[in-house]
Design a protein that fits this description.
Strand content: over 45%
Number of strands: 13
Radius of gyration: 16 Å
Helix content: under 10%
Number of helices: 0
């Protein structure tokens, strides 16, 4: 299955939002930068309920089969990454589902990740530093966060 949207090694800085991909399926974002979005001394139009603004934002429609990998998401007045299912029915009509979010760097945002009304979301080896409100994940089923450290193995002599 080929991705419908493939964004690689791009920059989306100093706007209201970095990458706004509302309701997109089969999306791949690898190696991008989204920084300084939604700042009060710059563009900060149409803040979203809950998270405000963000670096990578996928809300406003169903979103499935998404890979977000190796992105640098920093200094956003909102979430580094934001996702949200259907607000009107609290996720009963549709949810964000089947996402892999790995090896991203989220530094000095309001939230590292802000997510609500999702299913089958996997986080792996992401770096979170100085996000003022940490992460907000609510109403997400089958949520998995793998340890940021790889397992260690050692051989022992008999």
């Amino acid at each position: 299955m080929e991705p419908r949207q493939h964004v690689r090694a791009d920059k989306a800085n100093h706007g209201s939002y970095g990458f706004w991909l509302g309701g997109s399926d089969q999306t791949v974002l690898i190696g991008n930068e989204a920084a300084f979005n939604g700042l009060t001394n710059g563009y900060h139009n149409a803040p979203e309920a809950g998270f405000g603004h963000g670096g990578i934002v996928i809300v406003g429609g169903p979103s499935s089969h998404t890979v977000i990998q190796g992105n640098d998401l920093h200094h956003n007045l909102g979430a580094g990454i934001a996702f949200r299912g259907d607000v009107e029915t609290w996720g009963r009509k549709w949810r964000t589902e089947h996402w892999v979010v790995q090896q991203n760097r989220m530094v000095s945002n309001r939230f590292g990740i802000w997510g609500r009304w999702g299913d089958a979301i996997l986080l792996a080896a992401n770096v979170f530093t100085d996000n003022t409100e940490g992460n907000f994940i609510a109403n997400v089923s089958n949520f998995t966060e793998l340890s940021p450290r790889p397992p260690r193995a050692a051989l022992r002599r008999r």
